[in-house]
Amino acid sequence: MPTCCASGCKSRHSRGKKLFSLPQGKDNAARQEVWLQRIGRTDLDPVSSRLCEDHFTADQFEPILLRKFGTKKFKRDAAPTIFSQEHLQTSGKPIALKNWRMFRPSSLFSASPIITSQPCTDLKHVVLHIGVVHCFTLQALKALSLGFWHAFLLLKNCNAPVRIVNASSSVDACLPKCHVTEMMVFFSLSLSFLGHTATDSAPSDFPEDAPSSSECDALPACSTACSAGSSSSSWDADQAVVAALHKRIATLEECLNNMKRKVATLQQQKSRANRRNHELTRNIKKYLSPDQLQGMWTSSMRGKQ
Questions:
Q1: Do 59 and 147 have their domain in common?
Q2: 94-99: long-range contacts (C-beta < 8 A, 24 or more apart)?
């Protein structure tokens, strides 16, 4: 199965990505050289290599075909421009979604807490393993809550610095080095899923050092401020999306009204033409001589035979 030839890109045709061949022929030798330089690989075979659509911006395709039919056809001078590390890390399919039915809650979380003093450089590993729980039974919810608690312990003992986007410096300073407060919120929510209120203690099968209800409720004030900031930003984004949708709906309604007016006009023209044709047929003797009428009658009879 063909795959993308760019370094670090895991896109392939089987995952729904469109792959393009490199420019071929003498006329495209200059373009091929530009492509090879931007891809940055010297071991490529220009004939068999393919490059996926993620490395091209929208202005590299024919706009009319892309807008009306969704067909991605290159312009004559199209060339790849997107090769950032951030793109390459997110271009692949999430690992946890590939074989999520193979995981079971009992195999995801061990009985002993996960405590480490090493800086956690990738928190996606913890989140992905928690997200593959696919059975919302009581046992699965207990395992999910236990996994949140283990992730909380992992973050609590982490010394890695964390940069919070769209947050003020004061909020950033009062937060822990990892998002411990967010994990406490997740842990409290998982307790509520199991039928425990905020005043109840942790389940009996949880570790002895699990946080109490007071610890879950006593979140720092900076967490509230941070969540308020994120909520306001998400609210602004939602408002922008809703406004764009309303604008699009108004445009479509206007187009629909224009089409209705055109259809009504065409129907009126058709009715007038039919009435005119009927009048001409009925009063044809006023406009033609008897010989012409006889000729028309003879030709019409021959056509019917």
A1: no
A2: 94/128, 95/128, 96/128, 96/129, 96/131, 96/132
